[in-house]
Amino acid sequence: MREGTFEAWIHAEMLKNGLWPRDAAAVLAKIKADEKDALNEVMDKQSKGYPIEMFAVAWLSIQRVALAWLEENKPNHWAKPMFMPRAERDALLADYLPKEDRPDA
User: 37 vs 22, which has greater pLDDT?
Assistant: First the structure.
């Protein structure tokens, strides 16, 4: 169950996906600085009760901003693949997977 505000949820999800707290705070600041980002409308609202689809769509937006921040500030961060689109991530990691586990196998 999701408790707390959307901002707390976003921060927690970024930590779960490998960002350090300071990095997650910087990504949150970048999201908040973008007046066009729809997440700003719900950032301080309680996340409980919203449909799971909203979190899925929000995560796509968060991934995009986090990846851009990582590429600009920490291009070699080990968690970068966690924020990449699946096809891009799979292509990057394919060389590290056994042949039978590769996406194109």
Answer: 22
Is 1 within a domain?
no
| Coil vs helix vs strand at 6 | helix
The percentage of the chain sitting over the pLDDT mark of 90, rounded to a whole number, equals 46
Please name the residue that has the structure tokens 């899925």: 56
User: Given its phi and psi angles, is residue 49 left (phi above 0), alpha (psi -120 to 50 degrees) or beta?
Assistant: left
Number of domains in the chain: 1
Domain that holds residue 44: 6-101
pTM (predicted TM-score): 0.82
Residues 105 and 63 sit within 8 Å (Cβ to Cβ) = no
DSSP 57-74: HHHHHHHHHHHHHHHHH-
Contact 10, 58 (CB under 8 A): yes
